[in-house]
Amino acid sequence: MTRPAAALAVAAVLLTACSAAGGSPSATAAPTPTPEPMRTVDPSPPASVDATQATIEVGGELIGIAWADDAAWVASYDTGELIRIDPATNSVAARIRVGAGAIVVAAGEGAVWVTNHDDGTLSRIDPATNTVTDTFPAGEKVEGLAVGFGSVWVTLEQSGEVLRMDPRSGTIEATLETGGTPRHVEVGPDAVWVTGTYSADIRRIDPQTNTVGDRVRVGAGSEGIAPSAGTVWVAALVDARVVQVDPATLRAVQAVRVGAGVEGVIIADGSLWAVCQADSTLWRLDAATGEVLGVASVGPQARRVVLGDGSLWVPARDGTLARVDPAKVAAPG
Q1: Nearest to residue 68, comparing CAs of 94, 42, 32?
Q2: Which of 107, 187, 260, 284 has the greatest CB tally within 10 Å of its CB?
Q3: How far is the CA of 196 from the CAs of 3, 192, 216, 273, 308, in angstroms?
Q4: Half-sphere exposure at residue 207, Cβ-oriented, CA atoms within 13 angstroms
């Protein structure tokens, strides 16, 4: 089973685990205040629109994507490549061999980065020359990737850890135990955030002290993270919801139902964009209120999205990359 196919199987496993979970607090435990319940919203979404500006035939099984150096960079899992896309021509500008199971892409510290899930490595690419300048060992089933606070952050599913790495030497500066199976990591304004699919939560990492905070439950199948100064949104794949977390109180505020298999989320131009792989849709919500603004169709089993050159770029499992006009993904009126 390929890595993307395994991700779709998470739902069945999690639902079984949730139904079997039980237990009650100890009778001697001190009472704790009951938090305000999370608000749940089940909107009636607008009809899906076709907002595609271009469909680029890239090839391979596309997953991760990032924007850097005026180009889109997309990872092909089955071919082990990082592909550079020229937005001026909507065509492939370069193909770069990285490692087995190329899965997540990020940009920062003067480079483009790729985690290679199957060989446990991290590749650093120079966007000026389209060449791999270094390949660093990371660990078994490396996946999530983010750059910020002067470091590269990667997740290790097998060991339940997040590594903080020096972007120049590849030295591991800190190994942080998060537990579960951490897959997504993102850098926010003042913290690093990580989700664990099977633990159904999000955790905050303090980059000043390298300490991992308490778990905040967000819903079954916690996946993509979209942090900003005032809010953090998390995709709950199994629940088919995006969950808003208050970064100040570390409390889940509301959960909004979106499409099936929601995974990738970003905040761009005041909107939250959520990619739903099971029904091949891209949802637009107000990033502050969670109001659903529009829905667009994208490629099959699309999992990630990035904004660049005024467009949204959404890679799909069938090897196509959709360029989407964000202005067309809006409710009429």
Answers
A1: 94
A2: 284
A3: 16, 14, 11, 20, 28
A4: 20
What are residue 267's DSSP bridge partners? 272
| Identity at 148, one-letter amino acid code | G
| The predicted structure's pLDDT at residue 19 | 38
Counting as low any pLDDT under 50, the low residues of the chain are 9-34
225 touches 236 (CB < 8 A): no
Residue 256's SS3 state is strand
**Which amino acid, one-letter code, is at 272?**
L
Nearest CA to 142 out of 164, 158, 124 is that of: 158
* Partners of 162 in beta bridges: 155, 176
> Cα(247)–Cα(233) distance, rounded to whole angstroms?
10
Residues linked to residue 323 through DSSP beta bridges, in sequence order? 54, 313
Which CATH number is 40-328's, of 2.130.10.10, 3.30.1370.10, 2.160.20.80, 3.40.50.1580?
Answer: 2.130.10.10
| Residues whose CB is less than 8 angstroms from the CB of residue 105 and which lie 6 or more positions away in sequence, other chains included | 64, 65, 66, 73, 74, 75, 82, 112, 113, 114, 145
β-bridge pairing 251-257 and 39-41: parallel
Q: What share of the chain is helix, strand, coil (3-state, %, to 5)?
A: 5, 50, 40
Distance CA(141)–CA(231), nearest Å, equals 29
Nearest to 123 by CA among 104, 149, 140, 141: 104
CA-CA distance, 198 to 208, in Å (whole number)?
Answer: 27
CA dist list (Å): 128 to 110, 172, 293, 313: 10, 26, 38, 21
| pLDDT at residue 5 in the model | 52
